[in-house]
């Protein structure tokens, strides 16, 4: 049983990273009521771009990270302009399908450009010493991922609460027409939303690929994070963070205790089981707002 | 030239085939389908069989997503359930194909009912995520439940037989596919004209209003899930029977996306659209395959490009159709028809 604290701690830390990626989903949902199924692919694309920069130049780490963030902003703006702008006002199934189509395009493109092999970063992004907190050891990849995730989430929360643009984004999420009448440029807010979400996804992608390598399967983690956001509530940032922790811990526990029974692979499918259970019991998640429909 | 649309009794108005012209061309089309095995090569018949399977699956998915508005990202999982049920019943329980096929459909329908229960509490976005979860959970079960499915080794399936006549070539299997597809499409077409079909559409458009008018939402949603899964199960069973083999990689998430692409490009909420979409989306990978093999002779290494190119092309097609022609190929078809119908007054 002495493996339990280690499991809890690494689950908690991994959960922090999931929370960051979940943030990418929630930001978009809050502003535009769209679930971005392509977020996982944003992660993968960002990780690959960062790898390319690191492999083919001797740029320092922070420059490569900044360049990846720049790529994310560009990607977000492009996606919003070309794909989402024409879909304003279309029924929700069309918008969901468009993001799925986008995911397909991104999977294909990353596969085409970078191929199927599994890669690792040529230079370690973060200092490699693990952290020993007495009853558990946190490997460096997870540790720094957690720090970045917490930092990122903190920045986002401050942004949404105290900065004018952040408040404008919340206003647009709440009621587009009123926001427009207040002088907020909704089109610009949408572009900004997608850019920010792409940045969150890309940073999350770089962090996760630092732990488990870069391959096209990075995108599947994005789908796993769906469980996180459903648990937390689709439009709640705090819920995304909390959901991330819970799923991270649960995943580790289920993986270790159930794998021997079934022969492996439970860690990947565990979030989906949790997802189904949550949808049965509390569909709007821990903190989500119940959608009230009027005829 | 027939101009406008004049019906003078309700029976004529409700008819599936509104005029002599339509019936004539349809009969001609059926004759062509029947002659095809004797004039086409085995590759053409292989593609024709694939199209048949795709049509069945697409009609099922369209019934659920296009007509009832319940988004399902897990269609491939239900096909897998049907396929595995058929395989297990034939190889382990000694069922004949003719008995195992409807059982496969029924098993899928049963599982579909079960997943449909989640639709009681959630809708739209949440439902799509629930079906996505179902897709991955079933994928996991297909690989890991080795005692039932033999995991990644898969199950070999003997071809269907009547007495001593085996349906083991593309040509012979084609007739089977033709009959099953015809039945599936005919049933679907009639279902959507019937009160059940109208209930589906009411649920899609304004479900709260539908409930007020007395349509039991839960019952009809469950029926939609069950029927759609039944179709998926039949499609999956036909597919694995044709391939004579079933393995877990036959039913990945990308297959669900492919079926969704079929009904989106074909036209949501239209049986004819499902057929168009199925044909289109089955031909696209085949054409892509031919193109990449051809280009491979000029520039080597092109073959490895096929898979990611396929994904990219699918994605581009989905996005393109959604942005420029959200009502699908069937809308294009009707536009062309109306143009000729109303000519020279087609403005």
Describe this structure as you would to a colleague.
The complex is a heterodimer of chains A (295) and B (347). The mean pLDDT of chain A is 80. Chain A has a single domain, classed as ABC transporter involved in vitamin B12 uptake, BtuC (Orthogonal Bundle). In chain A, strand 1 and strand 2 form a beta hairpin. Chain A has eleven helices and two strands. The longest helix of chain A has 29 residues. A two-stranded antiparallel ribbon of chain A has the order 1-2. Chain A is mainly alpha-helical. With 347 residues, chain B is an all-alpha fold. Chain B has one domain: ABC transporter involved in vitamin B12 uptake, BtuC. Chain B has 14 helices and four strands. In chain B, the strands form two sheets. A two-stranded antiparallel ribbon of chain B has the order 1-4. In chain B, strand 2 and strand 3 form a beta hairpin. The radius of gyration of chain B is 21 Å and the shape is globular. At the A-B interface, helix 4, helix 9 and helix 11 of A face helix 6, helix 9, helix 11 and helix 13 of B.
